[in-house]
Structures are given as C-alpha cells and as structure tokens.
Design goal:
Blueprint lengths: L1 E6 L6 H13 L6 E5 L1 H10 L5 H8 L9 H7 L5 H12 L4 H6 L3 E8 L5 E5 L5 H11 L8 E3 L2 E5 L8 H6 L2 E7 L14 H7 L4 H8 L1 H17 L3 E4 L14 H27 L3
Parallel strand pairs: 1-2, 1-7, 2-3, 7-8
Antiparallel strand pairs: 3-4, 3-6, 5-6
Helix pairs in contact: 1-2, 1-12, 2-7, 3-12, 5-7
Length: 284
C-alpha cells in the first residue's frame, strides 16, 4: 500500500501547509509520494529536498523586494512574482535549493498545471531539481492575469488550481490508496464564482478553453471538497484544515503576517501529529 500527501494551493495561505510540512520533517514523517498544486507545489518540493524552514525563510526575506513580488515586477516583466528572480535567482543564489537531496529522496513528487489551450490539467512527476524543476513549479503557481503562460513540454501552462485544485482523485489513480490531504481553507468553506471573470475574459481572450475552466472553477472546487469529505468518511483520507480562515491574502508583503500563518500551521501539525502517524500505520 502506498501513502500519499496531497497539498492544495492558495498562494500565501500555503505557508500554513509549510508549517505542517516542517513539523512532519522534524518528526520523521515520510510518504511514498506527494502532489502539490500552485503554492502546494512551490512549498511542497522542500519536503522532498528535506529543507526545513526554507519557504518561510525566503518569503520573509524577500517580502518587500520588488524583484520577488510586486506591481513593479508585473508591469516590467508581465509576472507579479518575478519569473527569474523568484524562481531562479532565489533557489540558485540566495536560498539554495538542495537538488542532490531532492534527487536522492525516493519519495515521488508530482505537481499540477493547467494547459491554457485546452483548459485541462497537466500532471508532471518531477524527478530532478534544477532550473527545469523550478520552471514547472513556476507554471503550477502562475496565477492567471498576473502571470505569463510558461512554455514547457510544448504546452503553455498556468496555475494548476484552475483545472485540479485538490488532486486527491489523481493521486489515487497513481496508486496512492491512503492520503493525507492538507487544505488551506477551513471546514465549511465553499468557493464562489470568480467576480473578476469579466477581466479574465478580456485578459485571456485568446484562450477560450482557459476562460471556460476559470468560469466553472468554483463548481469543480466544491465538487472536489465533497469528494475529499467522502474519502475522509471512508477512512481513505486524513484531512488537515485550518480552524478558521487564514488572515493573509493571496499576496503579502508583511513578514509578521507570514510568520503568524506559518505558526498556525506548525501548531496544527503538532496537534495532528499522532493522527498522522496512526493513519500511516494502518494497512487497510
């Protein structure tokens, strides 16, 4: 039996997940595979490279650096999160990603993107670190309208959360029968129709299938929440959620705000640690 870890996105809400991941690394909790979407991919790769504290560290360090995330970056480069600085300079120069540890860890790591031409999910198992890995992570986390599509494997890609926000069913199809699912919204949350759709239709007018996917994203997401609850009730999934809405936006330039969300994740990780261990010990 294979045990998996499923990481929802949520931009800066993902620091909640990062706190839980750090607790699990500190406590020696391991999985056969993990799949991340958007921020779940960006922060989840550090679980495979076993770099405790890296996401909160670099996000706080560059919180007010225009090259990392800013309106200036968006205007100058077309990407709110700087494609070169955030996804290449940071992991290569300023807070090095451990490519050797990533490759040596036998845990599989998968991520999800959305093909802007079809509006469908693209799944990728990333076996090696390095610049190609970083570009796949960037593609998974590139939010529509504030990011340029990323060209990889002859596809133009954006945020994986548009097509598959909580890829539990995908991971089950890959043979991961029991999964820990980390969500970044509290129990009872339901996604609403995107009020920015008029702007998205204009911005993505050359990608009608992407527009269709965005238009029904709330329906897809809420259906996935129902599936997660079903698998949780059946004992096939262990779901970890924040107890209340996290007090942070999609973008934050406040290191204290980031730290607070991360600490909420650490607290939840410690509270659920025994539940996680018990779940991973069950064989049926």
């Amino acid at each position: 039996m294979k045990f998996g870890l499923v990481l929802e996105g949520g931009a800066m809400r993902g620091l909640f997940s990062a706190g839980i991941l750090d607790v699990m690394m500190e406590e020696g909790v391991e999985f056969d595979g993990a799949v991340g979407v958007s921020a779940g991919a960006a922060f989840g790769v550090n679980f495979k490279s076993r770099q405790i504290g890296r996401p909160i560290r670099y996000n706080k360090r560059f919180a007010r650096d225009w090259r990392y995330c800013s309106l200036r970056s968006w205007i100058m480069t077309g990407d709110l999160f700087g494609a070169n600085f955030a996804y290449h300079d940071v992991p290569n120069l300023y807070d090095p990603f451990d490519n050797e540890a990533y490759a040596a860890n036998p845990m599989e790591f998968h991520l999800v993107c959305t093909d802007v031409m079809t509006g469908e999910a693209v799944y990728k198992q990333v076996r090696q670190g390095g610049d190609v890995c970083y570009d796949w992570v960037r593609a998974s986390a590139s939010m529509p309208m504030v990011s340029k599509p990323v060209h990889l494997d002859d596809k133009w890609l954006l945020d994986g959360g548009v097509a598959d926000s909580i890829p539990l069913a995908y991971f089950e199809r890959q043979g991961f029968e029991r999964n820990v699912v980390i969500l970044t919204q509290p129990e009872g949350y339901q996604k609403k129709h995107n009020r920015l759709m008029p702007l998205l239709r204009v911005n993505l007018r050359h990608y009608p299938n992407m527009v269709k996917a965005l238009d029904r994203r709330h329906l897809m997401y809420n259906e996935q929440l129902a599936y997660v609850r079903k698998r949780e009730q059946e004992g096939k999934a262990l779901v970890i959620r924040p107890t209340a809405a996290l007090k942070i936006g999609h973008v934050s330039h406040n290191p204290d705000e980031m730290q607070a969300v991360y600490e909420e994740g650490r607290k939840m990780g410690m509270e659920r640690l025994q539940d996680i261990r018990d779940f991973l010990q069950k064989k049926a």
